[in-house]
Amino acid sequence: IVWFLVAAARWRELLKLQYCVSILLFLGLLEMGLWYFDYNTYNLIGTRPESITVIAVTVNAFKKTISRLMVLLLSMGHSFVAPSAG
After folding, report:
1. Cβ-contact 17, 82 below 8 angstroms
2. Are 14 and 4 in contact (CB under 8 A)?
3. What confidence tens digit (pLDDT) does each residue in 23-37 have?
4. Whole-angstrom Cα distance, residue 2 to residue 24?
5. According to the model, what pLDDT value does residue 71 have?
6. Dihedral angle over CA of 45, 31, 26, 83, nearest 10
7. Angle, nearest 10°, between helix axes 16-45 and 2-9?
8. pTM above 0.90, yes or no
9. 18-24 contact pairs (CB < 8 A, 24+)
10. Which positions of the chain have pLDDT values less than 70?
11. Rounded CA gap, 58 and 15, in Å?
């Protein structure tokens, strides 16, 4: 949550990499919320809600895809760095 507050305060100074990190953090929060709801429902009712499980797995796959794409793009040096250090 602190990351989002600082990023919102300094949104003009952010690099593309920091936008991607923000997206990954949001997807992680969303995924954990979905898994919490899934397990809580499973504990209360005794059956797994299939729709929530499918959505949580899909968000997990999307998050992993974005993070692996970020690693590939960073390792190739593809426009994630600032044009000048000053």
Report:
1. no
2. no
3. 888 899 999 999 999
4. 14
5. 85
6. 180
7. 150
8. no
9. 20/66, 20/70, 23/66, 24/63, 24/66, 24/67, 24/70
10. 14-16, 78-86
11. 27
Residues in the chain: 86
Write the secondary structure of 19-59 as one string of H (helix), E (strand) and C (coil): HHHHHHHHHHHHHHHHHHHHHHHHHHHCCCCHHHHHHHHHH
Q: Which two tokens stand for residue 64?
A: 């992993």
User: What is the model's pLDDT at position 78?
Assistant: 66
Give the sign of the dihedral formed by CA 56, CA 57, CA 63, CA 67.
Answer: positive
What angle do the packed helices 16-45 and 50-76 form, to 10 degrees?
160
Answer yes or no: are the C-beta atoms of 21 and 4 closer than 8 Å: no
Q: How far, in Å, CA of 6 to CA of 2, rounded?
A: 6
End-to-end CA gap in the chain = 28
DSSP state of 15: -
